[in-house]
Structure formats: structure tokens, C-alpha cells
């Protein structure tokens, strides 16, 4: 069950990576690399920091699913672009799931709540950052003012707090994931925006 | 013997890194950083994922050889540019060697054939990706449509298959390396190209 | 004491990261990510290569101080820009400290003097490289011809030499740090410049 949710999150993240590949006119190799890195990069960073072998390198599904996503985008990217609003909702679900699961894993390995939450956020957003760096772009997360990292931070913080209260296992994970998911959806619907530094005019992009 | 081959591969990869440094008008520090990262980056990524100390940090030759390559390019880059066709052949040899050696090392550490082959490809192409990211370019591998990763994939897959059949040691490594090398040379000679996503016109670069 | 010096170095590196964020018009999330990565990135790279859990993930101060620096820059960046000459002096102090401390830690973990010094330089300059890659720029270190890495190399080399002579502990660290600091300040005052490859005209940037 949790494995199935993981794979859905990985699939959706991989779709976003492969689509960036199409938009940047990358070839099939580039699309596949972006799909894999977007989907698996956050978890790999988390596991490198925890000093354990990355989960992606002991699961067949984790490697195959992004390749399937890249193949789908390769053949049907116009159709995938059309269903992007639905993909964005699934992406928010992946964000919620990965920040909760990442925080829990980090705390299982003995990190403090602060560092556990930090690593949970890294799990959720690290793949997207690697995707953009590889695609030659400033990571969207750093400038687009959408609330993407903030819901992950709050979800991770709640997971860390529940863990500290000895509430872990799937109900706590699910509650934290749903919270981050709900906040992300609310931020999209309400067009909430992260502030720029004081005095910086907001009419131009980087 | 295997050590000497390794050092030749490292030297050639370092030349390509230092040359990118010259073309991008980097200073001597930048040239040296690119030479070291191009030559050693793939192996460092592999070893970080295997959760062992990177081989580059326990070998003197691995660190000194790229610095020598950077010094040669510093003084004689026009001459090095002139012999690039020969360097490309040596680069193909490095590609073949590193994908085979990387796959074998990964499987020695208990990875599955699928993950071993994946890490073999990472060993072979990771340094070039880091080189381009540090030089402020989209990694060539992702868009230039040359078959560079694909020969490494096939060589790694053959190495993984041989390993599964209990055929490891230098004959298997050599066979896999030669296969990847030959495919890379064939791809260059025949100008084989990786496809773009369906419907994407091929007349413009990213 | 050493902890306090560390935190000052981290604070100053984080200021530089957050300022790059303002100049690139990133939002508050981007500023905070750049502050954290600039301050902690070099040490995280060092610890990943040493195959130990990064120090940043077991210290509260290491995570909180860059966030405070980002908040200060968020509200008072014009004032921080005005005191940049002073910040540059503190940055040189951080450079000196981190190269010495990084080399010592690496040698404590059994690396050779060569590799210890290399990892000391990585500790000192790695955060700045990550800052620039994330901000979509070629790392300043690779092209700006200032002597920034070179003082760190010399400080690290002296630390490694002292360590080999069994002179470690704070006097050796302090001496190496002060040496690198002094060289960096001298390089700034005297406008010393790293050379470009032979024959490359120096009138254009990358």
C-alpha cells in the first residue's frame, strides 16, 4: 500500500521531469535522465545524508517507473500537457507523501525533529531542484513565489512533532501528508505567493 | 595494468574538462576544477551511492593526473584541440572502461544487475554531466543526440549479465568495455542520433 | 570557542548566499535555500566524501544561523550591501577557518595529506560553488581570477604538513587559518589575479 503510493508519487514526479525535457528540446536520453532524477533525486539526497544506500538502488520499481513515465511523455506529450491540472494535483499528493515519509525515515535514523523535518523537505523538493539544474534553469522553487516548499515544511514539521510524541506509523504519516497536500492545493487555488526581499519590486522575473 | 588503463581514461576525461574551461574562458583554477570533476566525478558519484569512501580520495594518481592534464591544456590548448579526433577515440575507450568497471564494482557491493548497470552508466557519464553543470551549460549528454549514454548502457548491461553468469574478472570487464567502445565509435562514424520526443522538430537546439 | 568561530563563518557565508538571492530576485524560499547551501554545502560535501553523517545534520546552530542571516538580508539588504567590505574580510576569515578545520577533520578520518588538503579546500569553497550553480551562474570561483581557492589551498597544505608532523590541535588550526586569511586579504589588496590559459585574451568575461 505505502509502496503503491510511493510509486504513484514517483510516476508523477517523473512525468514533470520528462515534460521539462520536451520543453527544453532534449533528446530521449535527456528526457529519461530528467525523469529519473526528478523522481528519485530527493530520496537519493536524503539517503546520502543519512549515510545509507539510496532506496532507489535496491528497488526495481523505483527505477522502472520513471522510465515508463519518460516513454509515455515521449509518445504522448501533447496529451500529458493537456491533463497537467490533474497532474498538478497528483504532484501535490507526491509532495505531501514524500515530505512525511522522508521526515519519518530521517527520524528513524536518529535525527532530531529539526533535522528530520529539514530532510523531509529535501526529500520532497530535491528532485525538482536537480531537474531544473540539469535542464539549465534556476530551480523554479527558488524564485517562482508559489508556495511549494512551505507546505512541505509544515507537513514535515507536523510529522516531526507527531514522531516526538511517539505517534508514528501510517496514521501519522497519512495525517502529515494530507496536511501538506491540502496546504499545497489551497496555495494553488488562492494563488498565495511567497514574498520577495523588502523593497524588491515584483514585476520582473530573474 | 587495470590501474594504468584507469589513469589513461582519467587523463582523457580531464583533457575534455580542461578544454571546456578554456572555451568558456575560465581561469587556471576553473580549468583545474573542471579537469578534476570531469575525470573523477562519475566514480565519486558511484562510490557515494555505494556508501563507500570514493576511490579518488585514496589514490594519489587519480588526483595528480587530472592536474597534469589541466597544465598541458593550459600551455598547449591549440595543439590539444588539433588532436581532438584522437582524443575522441580515447574518450570512447574511457567510456567503455568506466561503464564496465563501474558495473563490476557496484555488483561486488551487492547491487542487482539492473542497479549495477545503472551505476556503471553513472560512472561513465557522471563526470561529463558535472563538467557541463559547473561550466553553466545544459549537459551535452541530455540534448546533443549523439549516442554516448546508449553504448555505456549496453556495455553495462552486458557486464551485468556476465557477472550474473559468474563471469567476472578482467576478461568479462574487457569484453564489455570493448563492446561499449566499439558501439561508441560506430555511433560516431555512422552519425547515429537519439530521437527527440514525437512531434518535436529537430532543427533547433535548446 | 571553536564552535563560536564556526558559527561566525557560517553566518558570513550565509549572508553572501542570501545576497546573491536578492540580486537574482529570488523569493524568501530561494534566499533561505541559498543561505543554507552556501553556509553548509562545503561541510556537507566533505562529510559525504568522508562517509560520515554531515555535521550540519546534528547541530541546531548550523541550521538556525543561516536562516537568521537570510532573515536579516530579507529586511535589511541595502544596509548589508553597504557593509560588504567588512563582510569580505569576515568571508576571508571563514575561508581560512573552514580550509584548516576541513583538512584536520579529513586527516582525523585517515586521509593522506594530499587528499586531506583537497577536502579542506572543498570545505572552504564548496558552498560558494553550490550557491552559484543554484543561482544559475557559472561558479565565480571558476572564472573571476581572484585568488580565492589558492589561499585555501596553501592554508590546507600547511595544515596537512603540520598534521603530518603530529602538530594538530588548535594552535596548528589557528596558524593555518590565519595564513589562508592573510593570503586572501593580501590577494584582495594587491588585486592579484589567476592566469588564463596561454594565449587567451583577458578582456572578456565568460
TrEMBL record, chains A, B, C:
Residues 4-77, 89-163 form the Glycine transporter domain. It is found in: Cell membrane. This is Glycine transporter domain-containing protein. Its main location: membrane. The chain crosses the membrane at residues 6-22, 29-49, 55-76, 146-163, 169-187. It is a multi-pass membrane protein. Keywords: Cell membrane, Membrane, Transmembrane, Transmembrane helix. The lineage of its organism: Bacteria, Bacillati, Actinomycetota, Actinomycetes, Streptosporangiales. It comes from Streptosporangium pseudovulgare. It comes from the Bacteria.
Amino acid at each position: 500500500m505505502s509502496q503503491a503510493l510511493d510509486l504513484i508519487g514517483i510516476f508523477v514526479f517523473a512525468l514533470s521531469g520528462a515534460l521539462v525535457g520536451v520543453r527544453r528540446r532534449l533528446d530521449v536520453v535527456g528526457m529519461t535522465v530528467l525523469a529519473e532524477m526528478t523522481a528519485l533525486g530527493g530520496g537519493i539526497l536524503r539517503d546520502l545524508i543519512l549515510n545509507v544506500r539510496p532506496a532507489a538502488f535496491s528497488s526495481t520499481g523505483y527505477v522502472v517507473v520513471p522510465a515508463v513515465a519518460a516513454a509515455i511523455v515521449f509518445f504522448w506529450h501533447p496529451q500529458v500537457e493537456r491533463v497537467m491540472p490533474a497532474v498538478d494535483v497528483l504532484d501535490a499528493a507526491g509532495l505531501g507523501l514524500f515530505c512525511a515519509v522522508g521526515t519519518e525515515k530521517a527520524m528513524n535514523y536518529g535525527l532530531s525533529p529539526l533535522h528530520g523535518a529539514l530532510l523531509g523537505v529535501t526529500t520532497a523538493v530535491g528532485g525538482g531542484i536537480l531537474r531544473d539544474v540539469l535542464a539549465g534553469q534556476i530551480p523554479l522553487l527558488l524564485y517562482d513565489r508559489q508556495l511549494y516548499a512551505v507546505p512541505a515544511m509544515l507537513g514535515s514539521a507536523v510529522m516531526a512533532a507527531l514522531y516526538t510524541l511517539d505517534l508514528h506509523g501510517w496514521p501519522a504519516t497519512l495525517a502529515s501528508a494530507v496536511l501538506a497536500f491540502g496546504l499545497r492545493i489551497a496555495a494553488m487555488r488562492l494563488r498565495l505567493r511567497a514574498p520577495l526581499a523588502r523593497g524588491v519590486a515584483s514585476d520582473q522575473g530573474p
